């Protein structure tokens, strides 16, 4: 984390925060938002509140063509030398992008530049050079000094954010006129014709409101904003840079009669002039998905200056991060706390302060008793991100998630749960119906605050929606045929897991016949598993496996989703014991796991596949299908091998630096994996109410559970040399099994590991000691 050298006035909030932190290490100070901003992490360093609607962050390149934007999915890339401006919406760690809404850039002097210019040519536009030595990034706060010969040269910029507001603070060079440029043309991933329509409205009191409708990753997305300033406008200009034929669709809300100026168009900018200022300029911006008046109401709902909002947000982060107390060497402590921070950015709030939100049907709805949330990267986050939230956040957060998912299904024109949703809009990205395990896992853990019958109905409606992703054939045949649907092998396996979670919830609710139907479907993975070769493979409608077949081949739209047979042949979280029997027993399963990690990739080229990063042989930690695989040795009676592989993964895939994430964080999944793994256990099969024990990577950690109970993890003798688990104690009694139940954690207590330098080949090897598998659960 870099520190910005600024006058004492600008650093006053930092000093106050340290005073408020109280005794002991401050978890806020342990977080480094720069981790993941380089390499393939795709995180952003800017200011946001926990699950905040606003992610106010610098964009280093918001003009790249869509096919060249992968590295800029979060707007900011550590390697870039210039900042184009500060926009209000960003994804954290996505492999695809959109957003970058409402870009603001300060300028000083007489001339105001209207275009960003060439990043390779200093002073050619409003973008400005910067130096990482002048940056500060911490939860809820970002600062940088703009430099070079551009219009922003010499301006000190600070950003903070509340739940639905972002606040800028700019200190302009003495004696120079202050200006802001608001550019509604720019967007992350420059989809052709993305800006469908936009509007700007200067109200009588000087408040600027506006909107834009975009056609990008999510079609027809509407966003509204309201912007106020700490100094009066001395002048302004609303400019249409492309006065083409007016758009005939959405025109924006009625504005009333208080307009000083307004403009509608497809390429709008606002030049805002403030003259020479004798104090920093504060700019407060609120967002809404409903309309401009709702954005104004959100603005009023979070009163206060930059310092006041920053203090509230930093306190919120301190409370959220204090859910886990971590004692570890500084690099690991920084890694884990930053991972926890990243895991608390999404699913972000999308509902307004009054409870209204715009849903997937593009209509405005009123939430009753919950806050509507969106940004659901469910193919990624069902694995560990959502299970983590059930432990480190109040139950209302999970209830909000479930209620939002069910409301989305009820409002959806297609009648299914979200697949990959943001701003209330569906993108149809990735596969599966993975809202289902999120809901089931929450219910089975005792989470309430939602209509369980309505939730189950939404789950079944999604699983039976024949038009989605080959489900009609899956229901009829028991597998998805590759000649009718791409990525068929992956879809078959993932649908089967989702079906198992429906069965689990249905049985817990007393719906026996429904449970039996989906228990049968949970075994459909077998229909795509080639027992002769030992691989999960795609089958044709004829029943034959598709040929030619190469288990190392990765091609989008082929047999697998962002992976190959090496990763997907292990995806049976609901019944790993049955999979190992199909493979020929424990010894053969272990040998195949070893072959995966030890595979020589020297002759393979995956450069065409953007998301394939963090390779250890054919294990791909930078992408989610591999995330449970290291824990599978435990299901074969060799937990010490899991311990070895976890050490290999953690040491090679995470570090406290900008390139410290081996792959896209994917809205917190990579980070949640590290949090769980550092604690010593992981939810291999969400919905089982079990966590598979691995090995800890911290000396001591305490989960401060939402109901006030505390669950401690202690690692006696932990060191680089002592990487193996010698023994485990739960609440003072020996624990011989290799899993811990969710209820045991929630009851509070202590999980104590004794670490040693050599493997304990006796602990956890008995079949009765192994984690849940569907086929052996009743034995």
TrEMBL record:
The UniProt record lists the keyword Cytoplasm: no
Residue ranges of domain Glycosyl hydrolase family in the record: 295-756
Domain Glycosyl hydrolase family 92 N-terminal: 31-288
UniProt keyword list: Hydrolase, Signal
Name of the molecule in the record: GH92 family glycosyl hydrolase
Signal sequence range: 1-19
Keyword Transferase in record: no
Molecular function via GO: hydrolase activity
Organism of provenance: Novosphingobium clariflavum
UniProt lineage: Bacteria, Pseudomonadati, Pseudomonadota, Alphaproteobacteria, Sphingomonadales
Pfam families listed in its UniProt record: Glyco_hydro_92, Glyco_hydro_92N
């Amino acid at each position: 984390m870099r520190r910005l050298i600024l006058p004492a006035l600008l650093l006053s909030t930092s000093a106050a925060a340290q005073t408020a932190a109280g005794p002991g290490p401050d978890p806020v100070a342990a977080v480094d938002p720069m981790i993941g901003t380089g390499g393939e992490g795709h995180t952003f360093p800017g200011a946001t509140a926990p699950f905040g609607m606003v992610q106010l962050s610098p964009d280093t390149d918001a003009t790249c063509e869509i096919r060249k934007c992968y590295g800029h999915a979060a707007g900011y890339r550590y390697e870039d030398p210039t900042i184009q401006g500060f926009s209000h919406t960003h994804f954290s760690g996505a492999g695809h992008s959109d957003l970058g809404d409402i870009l603001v850039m300060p300028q000083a002097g007489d001339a105001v530049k209207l275009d960003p210019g060439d990043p390779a040519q200093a002073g050619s536009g409003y973008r400005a050079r910067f130096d990482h030595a002048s940056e500060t990034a911490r939860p809820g706060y970002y600062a940088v000094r703009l430099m070079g010969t551009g219009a922003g040269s010499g301006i000190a910029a600070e950003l903070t954010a509340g739940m639905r507001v972002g606040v800028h603070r700019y200190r302009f060079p003495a004696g120079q006129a202050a200006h802001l440029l608001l550019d509604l043309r720019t967007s992350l991933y420059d989809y052709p014709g993305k800006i469908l329509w936009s509007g700007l409205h200067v109200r009588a009191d000087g408040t600027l409101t506006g909107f834009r409708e975009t056609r990008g990753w999510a079609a027809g997305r509407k966003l509204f904003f309201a912007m106020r300033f700490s100094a009066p406008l001395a002048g302004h200009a609303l400019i249409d840079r492309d006065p083409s034929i007016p758009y005939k669709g959405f025109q924006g809300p009625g504005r009333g009669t208080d307009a000083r100026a307004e403009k509608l168009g497809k390429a709008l900018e606002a030049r805002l002039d403030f003259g020479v200022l004798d104090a920093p300029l504060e700019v407060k911006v609120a967002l809404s998905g409903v309309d401009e008046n709702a954005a104004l109401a959100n603005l009023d709902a979070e009163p206060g200056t930059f310092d006041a909002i920053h203090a509230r947000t930093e306190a919120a982060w301190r409370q959220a991060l204090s859910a886990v107390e971590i004692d570890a060497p500084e690099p690991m402590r920084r890694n884990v706390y930053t991972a926890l921070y990243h895991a608390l950015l999404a699913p972000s709030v999308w509902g307004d302060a009054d409870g209204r939100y715009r849903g997937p049907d593009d209509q405005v709805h009123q939430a009753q008793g919950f806050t509507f949330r969106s940004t659901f990267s469910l193919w990624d986050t069902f694995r560990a991100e959502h299970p983590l939230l059930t432990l480190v956040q109040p139950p209302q957060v999970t209830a909000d998630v479930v209620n939002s998912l069910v409301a989305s299904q009820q409002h959806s024109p297609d009648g299914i749960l979200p697949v990959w949703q943001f701003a209330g809009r569906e993108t149809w990205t990735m596969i599966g119906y993975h809202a289902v395990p999120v809901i089931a896992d929450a219910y089975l853990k005792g989470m309430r605050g939602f209509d369980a019958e309505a939730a189950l109905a939404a789950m079944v409606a999604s699983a039976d929606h024949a038009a989605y992703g080959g489900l009609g054939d899956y229901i009829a045949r028991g597998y998805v045929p590759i000649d009718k649907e791409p990525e068929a092998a992956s879809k078959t396996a993932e649908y089967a897991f989702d079906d198992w979670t429906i069965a689990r919830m249905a049985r817990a609710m007393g719906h026996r016949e429904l449970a039996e139907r989906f228990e049968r479907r949970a075994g459909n993975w077998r229909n795509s598993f080639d027992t002769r070769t030992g691989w999960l493979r795609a089958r044709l409608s004829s029943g034959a496996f598709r040929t030619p077949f190469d288990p190392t081949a990765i091609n989008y739209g082929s047999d697998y989703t962002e992976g190959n047979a090496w990763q997907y042949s292990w995806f049976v979280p609901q019944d790993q014991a049955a999979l190992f029997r199909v493979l020929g027993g424990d010894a053969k399963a272990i040998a195949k796991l070893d072959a995966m990690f030890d595979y020589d990739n020297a002759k393979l080229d995956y450069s065409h596949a953007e998301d394939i990063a963090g390779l250890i042989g054919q294990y791909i930690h930078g992408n989610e299908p591999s995330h449970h695989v290291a824990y599978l040795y435990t299901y074969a009676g060799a937990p010490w091998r899991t311990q070895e592989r976890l050490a290999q993964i953690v040491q090679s895939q995470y570090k406290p630096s900008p390139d410290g994430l081996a792959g896209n964080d994917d809205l917190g999944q990579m980070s949640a994996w590290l949090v769980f793994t550092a604690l010593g256990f992981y939810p291999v099969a969400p919905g089982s109410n079990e966590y598979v024990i691995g090995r800890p990577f911290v000396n001591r950690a305490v989960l401060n559970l939402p109901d006030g109970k505390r669950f401690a993890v202690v690692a006696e003798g932990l060191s680089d040399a002592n990487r193996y688990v010698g023994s485990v104690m739960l609440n003072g009694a020996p624990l011989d099994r290799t899993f811990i139940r969710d209820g045991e954690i929630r009851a509070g207590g202590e999980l104590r590991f004794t670490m040693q330098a050599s493997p304990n080949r006796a602990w956890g090897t008995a079949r009765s000691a192994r984690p849940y598998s569907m086929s052996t659960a009743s034995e």
